[in-house]
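Q: How would the structure tokens look for this protein?
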Amino acid sequence: MPAYPWPPPTTSLLLPSMPWMEQLTPNGTEHAGADGRLVCLMDRLLGSRSPVTVAALGGSISAGSTYTVRNSNHLYHWSVATALRGFGSPGGNLSVSLHNGALPATGPSFFEHCMASQLPAAPDLVLVEFTVNLDHQPAAFERLIRKLLALPRRPAIVVVSMHAWRIMDVTKGRRVSPWRCQFPKLGGGRSKDNHTIAARPIDQQWADQDPRGDEDRVAELCRHYNIPLVSMRAALLDAVRSGKVPLASFMQDCRHPNREGHLAMAHAVIERLRSTRPPAGTPKCPSEAVALPLPMHKQGMPMPGSELCARGELLSQFVVTAEGFEYTSEHMGKPGMVGLAPGNNLSLSLFAKYLPFIGIPRGQRGAAHQKSLRCQDSPAYSDPTYCEQKHQFCHDPAVSRRCQRTCGLCSPQPTQAVSRGLTSSVLWIAYLSSYQHMGRAMAFCSGGCTCGPTEIDAHAPTERTSITAVQRLIVTHLDTGGRCLLRLTILPSTSSGEHKWKLIGLLLGENTAGDSWLPPGAMRSPGKGAGMFFPGLNERVATSTALAR
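A: Here is the predicted structure in token form.
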């Protein structure tokens, strides 16, 4: 006997559809993957009937940038969550919440570092959609997948792939990139810098895959980690090539689905969930941890500390000292750490948040142990090896006070020689840039790392707006074993006549060859700052929605 009622209602009873959806989307499973985590999801839905949280990660398709309202019921993950509610009975009586952490024009290179900020605390199902936003970075996608698989709740993971369609421009006799094609406008004509899709199926010469190979790379990684993959390539490619299903019936252009396209994606996901094989007995959930295979890609292993991605309130977890800086949203929806005067200092710990400290035994909390020794390590507990043993807890204030030398707090700029072969990272500092009030700050690193010094001028007199700008720093890791600190000091010099400086966010990434990746919205051109590195007022943010019963 199954551990829970089976099967759920058919997809056609749970979601609206078109005839071709019911015929073709059951073929949308490109790789079935393992059932273990899906069994746990079904057990929560149908066995214990516990509340379930669905999360979506992806680019513009999942973010809904082609729609006016984010988390719109047009989006595929909304339809998936709605259908899961109906697993109890058509009409729905299960508690399902949806969290949309997707960002337009953003690939896995961002999400691998900012996964925690884009996911809810305890997702049960994560829908991952990056095929058209892979940006030739399969290693970044692999690192993201490994991080998702390592989440403590062990959520079910389904990769959802939207095919990037390619056509032949019959007027010029050459293939067109999926990023530069569109459907004919009413009245004819062609938009600037784009190609019009030929109306006749005979003129549409389709490629079986994205020529960049990104779709195949995603599929290879899904097979490597045995993760379920549903794809519009598997479901609809043959039907589109034969002319049975016109592309315009489910796509807005060659890469963004319309409402029917999102429904088709949802149908494919639900069909894969319905194919989950129920266990013979009661499942053990969360599913037992399984050792991950070796990475497929040379750089497929997540970098230690690559989880640093903080904005707003999350910054407080990394603050060591704040002299003159304070946290404020300034009633503008862009929270951050703000300093207003020359000499204001802010120190933040990189690579590690403040973790719960295993405290000093009650009988040993005397005044002698509370006293900070400036440039030497305290013999706390009468144990001369205390600091050596606790150096991994340098992010804790109690340890750093006692272990100034070990934790790298004695010198603002260490003089130790950098050993060959030491690793480096790229630190992105997000700050407020504006045409008035803003000053300059000096940024540098100390302790167990070096970076800078770099002067950051937040005054942008030619831009009559306030934006989120970014500054890139290379952080070199020293072999001292100390805590890596970022220090920001407001300078007396100013081009605006005032000194305000606001830290909005931090992102620590890998220093990869070529370093072609930039945070979302960042521009290499001077004076064109980032608008999307970390969302602010009127920008898209990760949101959660409890579906109404």
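The chain has three domains: 11-166+210-297, 167-205, 309-352+421-537.

The radius of gyration is 26 Å.

Upvote if useful.
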